[in-house]
Amino acid sequence: MSTTLSSSLTELDNQLSNRHIDLDPQGYFIIYLNKDAGLICADHYTNAINDQGLAVDPDTGEVIACKGGKVRKPTTTFTGRTAKEICVKLLEENANPPVSMLDHAAYLGREFMRAEYALQTGKEYIQD
Q1: Could you tell me if residue 128 is inside a domain?
Q2: pTM for the complete prediction?
Q3: Number of structural domains, the chain?
Q4: Does residue 14 form part of some domain?
Q5: Who contacts 116 (Cβ-Cβ below 8 Å, separation ≥6)?
Q6: pLDDT at residue 74 tops 70
């Protein structure tokens, strides 16, 4: 692939990463790698959505900060050795999947693929 094409595709993805998407009322995930165990991990957190469309702690009603803020404990942690394995566990084997929006499910699939690539290549994974 040419450098120009690669650069324009990266620019396109960066633009798409900055688009507005509604929050999933079922909650959100923090995705990370456990390199020692060879696992992709996804901590699930519940949230509620306030009138302004912001995620709030369901217990306190406080807006959940993107960085810093109160430390919350995940409701569940999903793990898998591959993107496919963690997707199957989260979306197919789970009787009540914690995802209610198709764009959220698609986002998770893309992120799990990125995480799998980082795990296989030893590169750093940073969630988009």
Answers
A1: no
A2: 0.84
A3: 1
A4: no
A5: 40, 82, 83
A6: yes
**Three-class SS state of 61:** coil
CB 40 within 8 A of CB 115: yes
The domain in which residue 85 lies consists of 24-121
Residue 44's identity, in one-letter code, is H
pLDDT in tens, 16-28: 888 888 889 899 9
3 state DSSP class of 121 = helix
Let me know if residue 29 belongs to a domain: yes
Mapping DSSP onto H, E and C, the string for 69-127 reads: CCCCCCCEEEEECCHHHHHHHHHHCCCCCCCCCHHHHHHHHHHHHHHHHHHHHCCCCCC
pLDDT of the residue at 60: 85
| CA pair distance 127, 117, nearest whole angstrom | 13
Q: Is residue 6 part of a domain?
A: no
Least confident of 19-23, 91-95, 100-104: 19-23
Residue 47 structure tokens: 């949230």
